[in-house]
Specification:
By secondary structure, the chain is an alpha+beta fold. The chain has five helices and 14 strands. It has one domain: 60s Ribosomal Protein L30, Chain: A (2-Layer Sandwich), CATH 3.30.1330.40. Strand 7 and strand 8 form a beta hairpin. The radius of gyration is 17 Å and the shape is globular.
Amino acid sequence: MTPIFLPGLCDPEAAATVRRHGHSAEAAAEQAEAVFARLHDALAASGGTATDVCKLTMQIADRAYRQAIYGVLGRRLAGVFPVSTGLIVKGLADPAALFQLDAWAVSAGPHARLRRYRSTDAPYGLTRQSFVCDFCMVVVAGRRIFLRGQTGLALDGTMVGLNDPAAQARQAIENVRVLLADAGADLSHAVRLVTYVTDRAYMAPVLDVVRPAFADAPVAGTELVVKGLAAPEVLMEIDVHAVLPS
């Protein structure tokens, strides 16, 4: 099994798209079509297919574009069930880009995809989404484990810690413990951690929860302040990748 990392996929004609449609959901959907076409082409060039896709990190320039972009994702990767993290960002390298995608794949799929769900059946914060996407909570690809970005949303769909980033972080860590256990792993197997918060003031209370959880097995980490996450009431999110011992 060979890992394939495809970072920063954007529409190369983003400026032309914006000239045609302005900064709009229509333009975002058109850019998303181009991005997912690039994803499929890049996978094919690497000897892979859509069934190899494990993790998507969606970077969107405005919350108003989410439904249009995820609608394209739902069609392009129907039946694949990747894990995902969705970010609202202030801007991208190309000022005309409304959407950018990082994708992780591992050859020789399909892989084990645990706790599958459809976006219309799962809450995002306090609301449900109208777009239709096939997702899961955990992808196990050989020794590699990819988790959906975890927040204050408990695994039963309950939103924990409204207006309390530390409480949301505690719930996110508990979710990670449970999901890693589903894959036969624990926090000591984590190799990569990204912590997102929606306000710089939340970083310290969130890290005061997150860092001790990994104290016994330190992990390479990155911390970022983003414009928004899946829903306005979601104040933080953590991404965890893990590797099982050989």
